[in-house]
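Structure request: GlsB/YeaQ/YmgE family stress response membrane protein, Paracoccus saliphilus.
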Amino acid sequence: MEGIGWILTIILGGLAGWIAEKVMKSDHGLLTNIILGIVGALVGNWLLRLVLGSTLGGIFGQLVVAVAGACILIWGYRLIRSKT
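Returned structure:
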């Protein structure tokens, strides 16, 4: 997450992971939500830079990117798990 501190990153990661958990109708714990949100933000920002050449700025923009990235991660995990 660009331009925000570690504590805000953890808070936004937890919130993004929780929102993604509700959107994708899955059940995770707090630590998993934080990790999903932070890694989801990394994935989302990477995809945005790849496609658009830039990313969304600000706290709200990063929250949206993190939720979208976390949803992609949950979807990918389900896809891999269903094939095994």
